[in-house]
Each structure stands twice: as C-alpha cells, then as structure tokens.
Amino acid sequence: MVKRFDWYKGEENEEKKQQPQNPTKLRHNVQAGQVLVILSGRFRGKRVVFLKQLQSGYILVTGPYKVNGVPLLRLPQKHTLTTSKIIDVAGVNTDNVTDAYFKKDKKVKGTKEEQFFQDGKKKKAEVSQEKKDTQKAVDASILAAIKGKTEAKYLRDVFTLHKGQKAHELVF
Amino acid sequence: MAITRYVEPGRVALVNYGKNVHKLGVIVDILDENRVLLDGPTTGVAREVYPLKRLYLTGLKVSILRGARTKTLSKALEKDNISEKWEKTSKAKKHALKMKRTSLNDYDRFVVSNLKRRRAFELRRKAK
C-alpha cells in the first residue's frame, strides 16, 4: 500500500482521524443496558452500564455516577468484561454524547515555572457544568429503574476474585 | 471400618471426569484391578471401559448379573427405581448444590454474598 501524504491539510483530513477503517466489532452478546466490568484503568473492578458504541469504535458506559462514581466514560471494548445482567435503559437518550464530548480542553500555555508562580498549587481539573448536566440527564432514567433494588447495590459493588475462584471457571 | 461399597456388577457409580462427568452409570463387568465396564442407558452414558479413578462409588446397587446387556440393565434400573433413590441421597443433594454454585452468574454471586452479609448482620445484632 502506498503511503498517503497530507500535502494540503484541510478539514476533511482531520475528520477522517476519528473514524477508523475497521472499527471494533461489538461483542455479539452486548446490548444497551448490559452490565460490564471495567478491567483496567482508574475504574478497574467497577460494574458499569453499557450505553452504546461510539463512532470511533470505543464503548460508552456510565456508572451511573451517583451509584459508583463512574461518569460517562469512553472505553476500549477490550478493557471490559461482559456479564449477563441487563438493566433497563429504555428512557436513556445518548444522542448528544459522541467522541467530540470526550475531546480534551487545550492545556494552559506557559512554561512550568510560570504556572508554578501563578497559582502555587496544581490546579485541579474542573468538570464543566455542561458535562454535569449531560451526566445527570443520561443517568436519570437508569437511576429510576434501579432505585431501591439489589441492582443498585450490585453496581456499587466492586468485582474481585476471591480465594478459590478461578477466572476461567467463573460464569458471567 | 470395613469396606461396604464393593466394585461389583450392579454398583451404581458417579462419573467424576471426562465427557460423561456428573452422570450416573452402573458397573457391569470388571476388567482388572483398575478398570471396569460401565453402562448408563438412562443417563446417556455409553457402554464403555472406565478407570476406577474416574468413578465415585455410591451406596446404591442394581440387581443384575455380570455382563448384563444394556436392555436388561435399563429394565433393572427401572424396577429398582434407582433414579429416585439417588435423588434422596445426601451425595446427590450436595452434588446438585455444587453444580448450582458453579453455574451462578456474576449477579447471582453478588446476590448470594449480599444475603450472607445481611444474615451475618442480623445474627450479630441479635447476639447483642
């Protein structure tokens, strides 16, 4: 295959980066509302609710945030474990959550020294009100569906292997 | 303590390992010190040679002669009502429980652990 050179970098080329040629195939037994276990990263072990697959191939999940502290998260499918539990997500609308939602804000300009003298402390990343609102809107119907049920406790629980448990022998 | 569960024609055995694992069969003939001919027409175990190490001998026995054919065996099993007798034994119940536990999915396992925690909490509360 001939190497493609971006001689004239235009907007069309930048859009193509977000759409991979072969996006990850969604596992056959995964549907909206399926409970997944996150296997790596900051939220490893947490059980989350699968919402949809994004255009880039990544998976969109949510804790819900009030239940286990996991926000709207974008994950590679490979970092999840599918369980057979499905939660009712009939009222959930994730149309406005796309790959663009997860784009990181531009970093503060200036050298490290300048920043140090400016604040004295490292600034904590703040979540925009817009994101908080989206989180609330998406989680609302899920929280209503699991309110007061064992499912809520289940999502709060963290997955671990216990003594005598063998991962290849467990049924999920 | 004397041995009561002999390896003999008619002895009902539970298969521990292999493709017919967790199924019942009946010892029909004995080959040598280590191997027997096992048959289980009612449980889907084909008439085959099994090493004794793969079997668990139960306390149940069917009245058949050595080398009895499959048809004769299935008649004898029905007559002695082995399947019902087996279900009543504690081994059968424990085995069923073990099978249930291994088949639990992630949510079921959580429900069980949650119930155990609640029970422990209640017991501790009542002990005070």
Give keywords:
heterodimer, A: 172 residues, alpha+beta, SH3 type barrels, five-stranded antiparallel beta sheet, 25% helix, B: 128 residues, 2 domains, 4 helices, 25% strand, elongated, ribosomal protein (chain A)
Can you give a write-up of this model?
Chain A: GO terms for molecular function: RNA binding; structural constituent of ribosome. Chain A: Pfam families: Ribosomal_L6e (PF01159). Chain A: This is 60S ribosomal protein L6. Chain A: Residues 1-18 have a biased composition (Basic and acidic residues). Chain A has 172 residues and is of the alpha+beta class. Chain A has a domain at 27-96 and 129-158: SH3 type barrels, CATH 2.30.30. Chain A contains 5 helices and 5 strands; from the N terminus they run αβββαββααα. In chain A, strands 4-3-2-1-5 form a 5-stranded antiparallel sheet. Chain A is globular, with a radius of gyration of 20 Å. The model of chain A has no long low-confidence stretch (mean pLDDT 85). Chain B is α+β, with helices and mostly antiparallel strands and 128 residues long. Chain B has 2 domains: 1-82, SH3 type barrels (Roll), CATH 2.30.30.30; 89-128. Helix content of chain B is 42%, strand content 25%. Chain B is built from 4 helices and 5 strands, in the order E-E-E-E-E-H-H-H-H. Chain B has helices spanning 70-80, 82-88, 90-103, 106-127, and strands at 11-15, 24-30, 35-40, 45-51, 55-61. A 5-stranded antiparallel sheet of chain B has the order 4-3-2-1-5, covered by helices on one side. The N and C termini of chain B lie far apart (45 Å). The relative contact order of chain B is 0.14.
